[in-house]
Write a structure and sequence with these properties.
This protein is an alpha+beta fold. It has a domain at 36-93: Orthogonal Bundle (Arc Repressor Mutant, subunit A). The protein is 42% helix and 14% strand. The chain is built from 4 helices and 4 strands. Strands 1-2 form a two-stranded antiparallel ribbon. The chain has a two-stranded antiparallel ribbon with strand order 3-4. The radius of gyration is 20 Å and the shape is globular.
Length: 97
C-alpha cells in the first residue's frame, strides 16, 4: 500500500462532517474473520494428517504460503489441544484425538 489512504465520512454519506478515519497502516497485522482461525488450524492439521511421517515448520509454511512464525503459532495451538505433537524437528498429527 503506498501512502496511508484516509476514508472520510462524506465518502459514505455524500457530504456533511469530514471526520477522517485513517486506514490501517501497511505494517499493521490483519485481523482474521470469524471462524478463520479454526479453519486455518484445520488446514494445518489436515496437512499433518496427510503426511504421516511428519513435517517441519518450514515445509508447512512453504506448502501453505504462510510465514513460518504463523505456522508455529498454529502448531502450538494444535499441541495445546492435543491434536498434534512434535518429535525432534517434525510435527505429526495426533491420530488418537
Amino acid at each position: 500500500m503506498t501512502g496511508a489512504k484516509k476514508f472520510r465520512s462524506d465518502d459514505v454519506n455524500g457530504g456533511g462532517l469530514s471526520d477522517e478515519v485513517p486506514a490501517p497502516k501497511s505494517g499493521a497485522m490483519a485481523r482474521l474473520q470469524v471462524g478463520e482461525k479454526v479453519a486455518r488450524e484445520k488446514q494445518v492439521w489436515c496437512l499433518l494428517w496427510q503426511c504421516g511421517l511428519g513435517l517441519r515448520e518450514s515445509e508447512i509454511a512453504c506448502e501453505l504460503g504462510w510465514q513460518r512464525r504463523t505456522v508455529n503459532n498454529y502448531l502450538n495451538a494444535l499441541r495445546d489441544q492435543e491434536l498434534a505433537y512434535k518429535e525432534g524437528r517434525y510435527w505429526l498429527a495426533d491420530y488418537a484425538s
